[in-house]
Amino acid sequence: DIQMTQSPSAMSASVGDRVTITCRASQGISSNLAWFQQKPGKVPKRLIYSASTLESGVPSRFSGSGSGTEFTLTISSLQPEDFATYYCLQHDTFPLTFGGGTNVEIK
Amino acid sequence: EVQLVESGGGLVKPGGSLRLSCATSGFTFSGAWMSWVRQAPGKGLEWVGQIKSKSGGGTPVYAAAVKGRFTISRDDSKDTLYLQMNSLKTEDTALYYCTTGNGGGWGQGTVVTVSS
Question: pLDDT (tens digit, 9 = 90+) per residue, B39-51?
């Protein structure tokens, strides 16, 4: 199975900060990676698919990059509504696997 | 608008069975690959399994943790996805979501609690 190692597992940041979250795959997954945002008590929402394609309606401050084994989700200027937990998902090879999540908290 | 509505969750004893349903609308269900994802209380997301469209072979695939106990099926005439869960364990306690493909659309989830 492909392991997805997400880092950091938690972080504190301030409004306006640039935030970077990383997912590392245990083997190459091309660009078959998605990023999700989940707020407490809410359903996860896909932000990015194919590593770098923004879902319709997602603010442009979110961006994704990478291919192969190393991927990043960047929030260029953190907004109050962005405090949430973020997950990556590799959908290259079955079984699909999620990263462990990154909890972005208010500093 | 894509809509996914799960049902069938509840409290069941270890070793018991439960069948979850996911009624869908707003997209061509018969052509969609569909997934189940779960989230244990206070934990992260865990992929449970996926079923291809009939034209894609209709084959379900599963996570190791549920393989042999869970069965994913679909009824394209009813635009509905199912998850048959047998031999349930306490560690299967979670909120179960159905999703389109690789997570483009999600239902609100249904809670499964396995406890004696």
Answer: 999 999 999 999 9
**Cα atoms in the Cβ-side hemisphere of radius 13 Å centred on A10:** 4
| DSSP secondary structure of A40-63 | TTS--EEEEETTTEEPTT--TTEE
SS3 call for A5: strand
Confidence of residue B85 (pLDDT cuts 50, 70, 90): very high
Chain B from 24 to 43: CB within 8 A of any A CB: 35, 37
Give backbone dihedrals phi and psi of B90, rounded to 5 degrees, phi first.
-60, -30
Q: Considering only alpha carbons, which residue of chain B is nearest residue A47? A: B104
Cβ contacts from A onto B, under 8 A: 50
